[in-house]
């Protein structure tokens, strides 16, 4: 018998009934927040209700404590078909999502876009509110929340099929939805990390190390971000940011290549006026987020 994973999530009415059974005063506002924050997943709901029962029915406080991770975030024990199966996301050029070489088949395009959005977010993590506003902007909160729960269910199922086991270890849910970077590799994330490390070397004058890292970042950027995919408004900004980062890397490398070699001992040398002007035109940003998005080419992701 096939069970729809979405049917396993508790509704607000079911959570209220569970609260009554456990002697907890029903607080509609707290229950609404509980369902919104947890997605209705049984393990998280059970943790909050047990905590509320231990604290004289303080349901609101239990939700706050769970959201703040005062206790270890509850999550199911994961069993996978092959131990250590790694999810690999390729976002530069043609999109690819594989687990140990097996492609992941997405039921709906939105499920794939939610995964990409998480992959491009800082720390591969986004709040539920951010995801609801991004992918269900015109829907009521109840409809949007159910849509997100269903999308995450389908996404986990698709990953589980490719992994030959369960998909819960790749996508974690709580107060935020996040990819587990211990078992997920993202080429765009590696690119941004390489640029950040290069900037750190550049900032302290270690130009050789910075140049090596800039070159490595440039190699990772094989093509425009998601160049094979139809335009998705929710992904335009992170795509533009990656394109702007590449432009920055290329300008820094141009400056480094134009700079004269360091003079040997006892010889004086200085940069030409043209090189000094070029160097001064490429400010070193304090972080990757300081780079403004660039104009996108029509119908494609990436900088023009």
Average pLDDT: 77
Count all strands and give the number.
7
Number of helices, where a helix is a run of at least 4 consecutive DSSP H or I residues:
11
Round the Cα radius of gyration to an integer and report it. Answer: 24 Å
Proportion of strand residues: 5-15%
Give a short account of the largest sheet.
4 strands, mixed
Q: Could you list the spans in which at least 5 consecutive residues all have pLDDT below 50?
A: 1-6, 69-83, 264-304
Helix content bin:
40-55%
Q: Characterize the overall form.
A: elongated
What topology, given as strand order, has the largest sheet?
3-2-1-7
Order of helices and strands: HHHHEEEHEHHEEEHHHH
The secondary structure category is alpha+beta
Number of domains: 3
How far apart are the first and last residues' alpha carbons, in Å?
A: 51 Å
Describe the overall structure:
The protein is 49% helix and 8% strand. With 304 residues, it is α+β, with helices and mostly antiparallel strands. It has 3 domains: 5-67; 87-182, Winged helix-like DNA-binding domain superfamily/Winged helix DNA-binding domain (Arc Repressor Mutant, subunit A); 187-261 and 269-290. The strands form 2 sheets. It has a 4-stranded mixed sheet. A 3-stranded antiparallel sheet has the order 4-6-5. It is elongated, with a radius of gyration of 24 Å. The termini are far apart. The model is unreliable at 1-6, 69-83 and 264-304 (pLDDT under 50).
């Amino acid at each position: 018998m096939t069970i729809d994973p979405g049917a396993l999530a508790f509704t607000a009415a079911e959570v209220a009934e569970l609260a009554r059974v456990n002697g907890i005063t029903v607080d509609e506002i707290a229950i609404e927040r509980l369902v919104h924050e947890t997605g209705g997943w049984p393990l998280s709901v059970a943790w909050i209700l047990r905590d509320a029962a231990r604290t004289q029915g303080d349901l609101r406080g239990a939700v706050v404590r769970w959201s703040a991770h005062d206790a270890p975030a509850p999550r199911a024990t994961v069993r996978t078909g092959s131990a250590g199966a790694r999810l690999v996301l390729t976002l530069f050029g043609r999109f690819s999502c594989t687990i140990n070489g097996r492609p992941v088949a997405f039921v709906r395009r939105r499920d794939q876009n939610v995964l990409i959005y998480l992959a491009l977010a800082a720390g591969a993590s986004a709040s539920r509110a951010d995801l609801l506003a991004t992918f269900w902007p015109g829907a009521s909160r109840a409809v949007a929340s159910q849509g997100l729960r269903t999308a995450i269910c389908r996404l986990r199922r698709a990953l589980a099929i490719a992994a030959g086991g369960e998909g819960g270890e790749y996508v974690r849910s709580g107060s935020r939805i996040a990819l587990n970077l211990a078992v997920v590799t993202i080429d765009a994330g590696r690119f941004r990390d390489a640029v950040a490390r290069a900037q750190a070397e550049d900032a302290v004058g270690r130009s050789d190390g910075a140049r090596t890292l800039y070159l490595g970042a440039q190699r990772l950027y094989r093509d425009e971000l998601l160049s094979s995919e139809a335009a998705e408004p929710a992904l335009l900004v992170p795509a533009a940011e990656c394109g702007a980062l590449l432009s920055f890397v290329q300008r820094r490398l141009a400056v480094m290549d134009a700079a004269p070699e360091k003079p040997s001992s006892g010889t004086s040398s200085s940069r030409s006026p043209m090189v000094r002007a070029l160097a001064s035109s490429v400010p070193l940003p304090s972080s990757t987020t300081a780079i403004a998005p660039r104009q996108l080419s029509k119908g494609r992701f990436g900088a023009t």
